[in-house]
Fold this protein.
Amino acid sequence: MILVTGGAGYIGSHTLRALQAAGHTQILVLDNLYSGHRWALPSNVALIEGSVGDATLLDRIFKEHPIDSILHFAAHLEVEESVREPVKYYENNFRNSSILISKASEYLVKNFVFSSTCAIYGNPPSNPVGEDCPKSPLNPYGKSKLMTEWFLEDLVRAGKTALNYVSLRYFNVAGAHVAGGLGQATPRATQLVKVTAEVACGKRDKLLVYGSDYATHDGTCIRDYIHVDDLASAHVSALDFLKRERRSEVFNLGYGSGYTVLEIVAAMKRVSGVNFKVEMVPRRPGDAEAIFADNSKLLAMLDWKPRYADIDLICQTALDWERTRP
Ligand SMILES: NC(=O)c1ccc[n+]([C@@H]2O[C@H](COP(=O)([O-])OP(=O)(O)OC[C@H]3O[C@@H](n4cnc5c(N)ncnc54)[C@H](O)[C@@H]3O)[C@@H](O)[C@H]2O)c1
């Protein structure tokens, strides 16, 4: 049985569909609904409402269910908030994750897929970024994720656990389920494609662009945007890898090319046909200038191929979802 933490959230709920499409039927979700939604779960997947940091609850879950694999999505993830409220991030992302991982190890869970992030690299010296690039996170969000990676690495290195892990270092996740009916509904979301879709729908009156004096071709930050359904299917491949190889690995999960903020704005204007208002404002603390993935390791070692690497499709699915969402 697979335990999916944070399964009611944006990426978790898409991954549940990918797991089911791949034939996985024994799935349990643990989510405290801090930013997730009950309606985002498939009707045949059970939700346990609670925190991954609740050791007593975890004891009960592991005693009552034969869990052999965990996909750990549950976290807080707003960079700017993490700079203002570091305790919240270290507690939820590191402390609660370490409780979950310790319990998983105690109950002999074998496979653990961790939602890591390219934020652990900070401002990389060059692009594309490989997995061995120096880790220099610029904010408590990235640091709390890197600490969890280190915790997993040290646990496995000590050799006293049945657990193996794959850390997937996501780049910028965007778009909505290609089949429709599901997308990002995170309250107060700050991700660019999501916010741009909200502006195009008239849910916000303008788009703020944080910094137009970066050393990039149009002065705005560069990111590697990956469609959420491609990201979701990579988790199925990561689980297969763990079952097949029985060893731990870290992988960058992005498409390997980047777009500036203004290029995303142009794509969203193109697909929506709306010439929405854009305002340049000063840089935000904790933002990297440019980052995109070297994904060659993942392409070589996981049985995974991107299907939706098209920025207009990413924007279109985000927009369609934003126009119709509950
Ligand atoms: N969205 C991105 O672009 C992106 C990029 C890199 C990494 N990630 C990582 O992917 C994961 C999922 O992100 P998302 O975009 O789906 O966010 P989300 O906020 O939509 O989902 C997070 C889910 O975790 C739940 N949760 C939070 N704390 C919890 C706790 N202590 N116990 C139980 N449930 C808890 C929330 O209720 C929510 O359902 C996170 O770990 C995040 O750091 C996301």
Q: What stands out?
A: Residues 86-106 form the longest helix (21 residues). The two ends are 30 Å apart (CA to CA).
